[in-house]
Specification:
This protein is mainly beta and about 450 residues long. About 5% of the residues lie in helices and about 35% in strands. It has one domain: TolB, C-terminal domain (Neuraminidase), CATH 2.120.10.
């Protein structure tokens, strides 16, 4: 969500089946990575009912960076906003780092791609007049405004380069590392687009208007069905999918051209969204009314509203997304065309997860959810749907956690505190953003 705006207010017959799906899904990896989806979670180990994080210990006391982690885990800072991550590059890390992903390099290293969730040139006075008093501060810290930055890592985890791959865009929120090794960066404002970026920086970023004009939050790719799913971060946001034209993404082609396709919006049938908390509800997809116009002005009245769509991840045809306005985690079954709520803070017997935001799903079926507010934790929904905190950032209560992504070998996890920073007298508090690395123990 926008870091400078006011946040949104805040048992089924198939649960055994979905639990079994969690247990088995990790076996469906291709080349160590996900068959389809966003980001890279390349954990080659086997699958257990506990998932990857079922055996972690309770969180310990805050470490020297103010982060609580389980036994055996450690953290380091890899970038601080407005500072150079590496001396060899003049690029100063962007402010308000938000959604992120990892793409592997041929030499065994990797790229960490990170969105910058700040206004684009000209948007302050037009779309967000309440931000106008902050324009001078934002422009001073972020020449170019908005966009996407990259940290390049050597195989041993050393940061060796940092650079920008997209600039002059608006509220770049979450996104997706595609199976064809590009980054889809989402603009979160009513006329926002999705931009396709080359993480290596060799090719210029390209806007993809076929993916619609709305307050994009996140994307997820389904290669098998040749579709792209998208969430919309508005109080009455919709859940979208884009279906490629046959000429745009022919059968067997590794990727779409992203030039032409149908933009559709979900309609929940049956007992509706509230019924989805009890059992899977059937859905259907409707063509949007004016795909080349802002959707907040062209709603289909028969489409279903969701209270602030946030994180999104496709896990073998099970598409998980979060809605922050009601603190829910949903799963859409693309094969059966049904929707179900798998977590609802209002009905949970362990409501430790609130301010739900970014989502990452591991190959073992763990759903990792970052909190925007809440207790500033990353909480894991295990395959049996129990919850465990993976980490907590202490002393940065005005911030949010975002950008969760694993290194290609699964041994490191990146995340951001998008409004955290070092304090002049030592320690950490409010700031313009910190990007961290969580180092996992070998047994995990």
């Amino acid at each position: 969500m926008h870091p400078l705006l006011v946040p949104l207010s805040r048992g089924s017959s198939r649960r055994a089946f979905l639990q079994q799906l969690f247990f088995s899904a990790g076996a469906l990896t291709v080349g160590g990575g996900l068959l389809s989806g966003c980001g890279r979670s390349d954990d080659p180990s086997g699958v257990t009912g506990l998932g990857r994080f079922g055996n972690i210990s309770p969180l310990g006391e805050p470490n020297e960076l103010g982060i609580r982690v389980p036994d055996g885990f450690s953290t380091r800072i890899v970038a601080i906003s407005n500072q150079q991550p590496v001396a060899s590059s003049s690029y100063r890390w962007h402010i308000f780092p938000d959604g992120g992903g990892v793409m592997p390099k041929p030499d065994g290293g990797w790229y960490y791609i990170s969105n910058s969730e700040v206004p684009g040139a000209g948007s302050l006075g037009f779309q967000f007049p309440e931000l106008a008093p902050l324009s001078n501060v934002i422009e001073a810290f972020t020449p170019g405004l908005g966009g996407v930055g990259v940290l390049e890592f050597a195989p041993d985890g050393t940061v060796i380069n940092a650079y920008r791959i997209l600039g002059n865009t608006t509220f770049n929120c979450a996104g997706c590392v595609t199976p064809w090794n590009t980054w889809l960066s989402c603009e979160e404002w009513p006329n926002g687009q999705v931009w396709e970026c080359d993480p290596t920086g060799r090719k210029s970023a390209v806007a993809r208007p076929t993916l619609g004009f709305f307050s994009h939050e996140a994307t997820a790719v389904d290669v098998e069905r040749r579709m792209i799913y998208m969430t919309e971060d508005m109080p009455d946001g919709r859940f979208y999918r884009w279906i490629a034209d046959e000429s745009d993404w022919p059968a067997g082609a590794p990727r779409p051209a992203l030039q032409s396709g149908r933009l559709q919006v979900m309609q929940v049938l049956g007992d509706g969204t509230e019924g989805a908390g009890q059992r899977p509800q059937p859905v259907q997809w409707l063509d949007v009314l004016k795909p080349d116009q802002p959707q907040d002005q062209n709603r289909r009245p028969d489409s279903t509203a969701f209270k602030g769509g946030e994180g999104l991840w496709n896990h073998h045809g099970y598409v998980y997304f979060s809605t922050k306005g009601d603190d829910r985690i949903w799963v859409y079954d693309a094969q059966r065309q049904t929707l179900e709520i798998i977590y609802d803070v209002a009905t949970s017997n362990n409501p430790i997860l609130s301010g739900v935001d970014n989502i990452t799903v591991s190959p073992k079926g763990d759903v990792l959810v970052a909190e925007d507010g809440g207790d500033m934790q990353v909480v894991v929904i295990l395959p049996d749907r129990t919850l465990k905190p993976l980490l907590q950032v202490v002393g940065q209560d005005g911030s949010e956690i975002a950008g969760i992504a694993f290194s290609p070998d699964g041994k490191r996890m990146y995340f951001t505190s998008d409004r955290g920073g070092p304090l002049p007298g030592g320690g950490y508090g409010a700031g313009f953003g910190i990007t961290y690395e969580l180092i996992l123990p070998n047994a995990i």
